[in-house]
Description:
Radius of gyration: 27 Å
Shape: elongated
Helix content: 10-25%
Oligomer: single chain
Number of strands: 25
Number of helices: 6
Distance between the termini: 60 Å
Largest sheet: 8 strands, mixed, barrel
Strand content: 35-45%
CATH topology of the largest domain: TIM Barrel
Structural class: alpha+beta
CATH superfamily of the largest domain: Glycosidases
Amino acid sequence: MGKIPDISYWQGYVAFSQDTKAETDYIIHRASCGTSRDTRFPENVAKICALNIPYGVYHYMMALSVDRAKYEAEVFFNAVAKANPAYPPTWWWADVEEPDLVWANGKALPMNPNLHAIVKAFYTRLRELVGEAHIGFYGGESIYEPYGKLSDIGFEALWFANYSKDPKSAHHLHQYTSKGTWNNRTRIDLSKIGPAGTLEMFTRASGKIEVEPVPQIDDPPVAPEQERTSKTADLYAACTSGKSWNMRSGDGTKYPSVAFMQYGDKLSLVGVSATGWVCVRKGADLLWVSPKAVTIIDGAGKPATVKAPAKGHLVRVTEPYSWNVRAGDGTGYAKLLVAYQGYEWEHVVTSVKGWYGVRLQDGRIGWITPKAAKVV
């Protein structure tokens, strides 16, 4: 029995030979990841076909919305079509890996509750493109059913990854190690046939399918890391009352005091909260002071007004992708957590940069770019 490796760009240059063919029963190559094509795939699939090795292709899903999932299915299809292989893959695999988790109230919560809809959209669009070709699922056993409830989508085979033991549920392929040896290489992912599968079901030709690329925007929308902010307004909060005031980590006396603002101090204004508290920039920190302590002024020292948000409104993430919630109103601040489309929190303040300050589940004030969200 030969080996079943899966490879990608991360293996670098692969020297395929007749020895490779003798060692290999079936090979699965990554064709794409997110919105990018695997740059090693065209070269490697040509060599695979030259040796007449049966092969499958997989796509690493990164979509966090239904629309993005459809787009990624097209990226996957086009990656194979543009490589123009001598013969088509026998299987197309959706690589669905566990989303990051965030802790709230002592419990780990999935950050994207829409996994089923996203995977279904990917599968449905891919099915439209590949016709009757075989489509399978790759991922953790827990993701497939206990977490994702994906069994009703229509995948024809299950390829589970578990490096410590055999999966409990019926499966067709089992990726059992990430430290296998193949083709004189080490640290290769290797799989074996599962109890529900046969080698013949993966290696037999899937029939001629049309693999003409579908029209698609070459440059999809920018990723969330390319967040941009507008120019900061020239406004300040001047301490004009009393002698010394507590500066707090949030917009109220329930938050701890972390610094002091003295009479005569003038700090850059960040915004005014729905409760009237004033957020200022003290060095690299965003701190809060009572409205009784300060007067808002412009660069010339004249009194100015800033509209505070109405109470009771929420900030909702409305855009696809994952978005960083930060400790301040800009990309230079530390990341507090990652949010997905549909997440929402209490709207606390809008900064002069336009970023939204929100109250997180643990009470901290987090900040998110207006490119990701809106007030509802």
